[in-house]
Amino acid sequence: MLSCRRLILSYSHFPSNRIASLLVTRYNSSSSVDLSTILQEHSLNFEKKPSTTIAYETFVQAPSEFVANSLLQIHDSLALPWWVTIALATITFRVVVGASITITQQRFIERLQIVRRTVTNELEPRIKELNMQAMKGKTATVLEEKKNIQREALQLTKQGYTAYNIHPGKILILALFGSIPWLYFTFGIRMICMSPRTLPTISQEGVAWFQNLAEVDPYGILPLGFLIPSLIGISFNSIEKPGLANPRFISAGRIQRGITRTIVIGFTLIAFKLPAGIVLFWTLNSILQLSQTIIFELPRIRNMLGLQPSRFGSQPVRLRWTIWTNKWSFFFRTLKWYSKL
Prior knowledge:
Blueprint: H1 2-10, H2 19-29, H3 35-48, H4 51-78, H5 82-135, H6 139-164, H7 168-194, H8 199-202, H9 221-238, H10 247-271, H11 276-295, H12 299-305, H13 316-339
């Protein structure tokens, strides 16, 4: 019975109104606990709750409490300061969740590119013939043939998606899947920062200028540490090799990058008001994500993971840097030229 009580208490550090707190209360007040009665009462109370409350407790509160309890177990078991606990959890999260999602996305993108190349190679002769007819002024024939090619391209694309078991929507789902654990970690650390049980320790186990992880960063350095690597990562992924960029996707990519930058800046503004423990997790995760993106571009790493070579060749990082610097140098030269007018 003592081990049973320890098991219940070990999962009730952040009990709120869930069954763990109910079991602990009943166990402490009575020597003989009828678990079936407790579970029946809890089931009746559960049925009386609104659906929104049930959804929140099931999909938000419960996973966040699990993260908070896990961090607390790591902190107490290993006797680590809170900033080391958060850093260790961030590294684990990035390696386990982030790396697996990135590798899966890379493989999905490779399959999508194979499908696109197959469709292009299949229809390229007809497209060339269509362009020749357009030059000869056969407008009606060109329009009809263009519709046929579009229908055939759509059909071939669907067949390719079925053959390779892929779809562009799966990449979006993977990105969302990576964001959900990030939110759970954020809510879990917030619970730790606000809990009376952990507040005495987390307020004293910071490092450097943010000794109190339950308070905001007094100098605002951590939010900037989150912002800068995030913007660098967006710019790094947006660089395209000259001559290989598809003009049809350039405008869509710019819109997507603009939305992503806006979201990052918005989260940075929020970070100035959040506890330093949460922003520490955000900052470390952003730095590790950027490092992971760069590492996965290296030829040796891609070969080890079974990925196709990078489209930037044997020195992808250096080539990206050259393209980026040339782009900005051209911008400043143009700006200087306009200033002289």
